[in-house]
Amino acid sequence: MPQPDHISALGTSDPAGLDEDLRAIYAKCVEKLGFVPNVFHAYSLRPAKLRNFITMYNELMLAPSGLSKLEREMVAVTVSSANRCYYCLVAHGQAVRRLSGDPQLGEMIALNYRVAKLDGRQRAMLDFAWKLTMTPNLVDDGDRDALRREGFGEEDIFDLAETAAFFNLSNRMASATDMMPNPEYHRLDR
């Protein structure tokens, strides 16, 4: 049974009517990925917010960090698992498959990251992301100390917290708009 065929329950803007800078971003997505991620289409209702989303996403997920790209995607999937965000589980699960070369890892993290064979660093990172998502009021010095014992520096902990926070926001927007992932994600990197 296929997923619903809409991108967002709130509709999207016609890409031809977007400003030139956004059309250029769409063209680059098509060139690199073969499609424009539906999150961009969903955010196109508010072009300034789409620009902000892209800027923040690129800073968090692509800029230099003590967290690898794979680790940041693992955080995205763990947070999305806690929030049961269909869009992000599909899209970022595919990124975990691609970056890890492991077609099972994305599913393990999506369903229960605790079953995955992770090293101590990754386990501590995902434990922190889960706790920050599920019970943020309980995060304390002990949680940060656990990360430090696994080699995370202060900037790494900041990046980890910001990545988890961003995906909590993204998950809520995806749920609020009934955002659907691009069908292409389902078959990639299997």
Topology:
Layout: H1 20-33, H2 38-43, H3 47-62, H4 69-83, H5 86-100, H6 105-112, H7 120-134, H8 141-149, H9 154-177
Helix pairs in contact: 3-9, 4-5, 4-6, 4-7, 4-9, 5-6, 7-8, 7-9
Describe the structure.
The chain is mainly alpha-helical and 190 residues long. 64% of the residues lie in helices and 0% in strands. It contains nine helices and no strands. The chain has helices at 20-33, 38-43, 47-62, 69-83, 86-100, 105-112, 120-134, 141-149, 154-177. Helix 4 (69-83) runs antiparallel to helix 5, helix 5 (86-100) packs antiparallel against helix 6 and helix 7 packs antiparallel against helix 8 (141-149). The radius of gyration is 17 Å and the shape is globular.
Portion of residues in beta strands equals under 5%
N- and C-termini, Cα separation: 19 Å
- Strand segment tally: 0
What is the string of SSEs from the N terminus onward? HHHHHHHHH
> What is the gyration radius calculated from CA atoms?
17 Å
Helix tally equals 9
Instruction: Return residue spans where pLDDT drops below 50 for at least 5 consecutive residues.
Output: none
Output mean pLDDT.
Answer: 97
Main β sheet profile: none
Q: Structural class of the secondary elements? A: mainly alpha
| Shape designation | globular
* Helix content bin: 55-70%
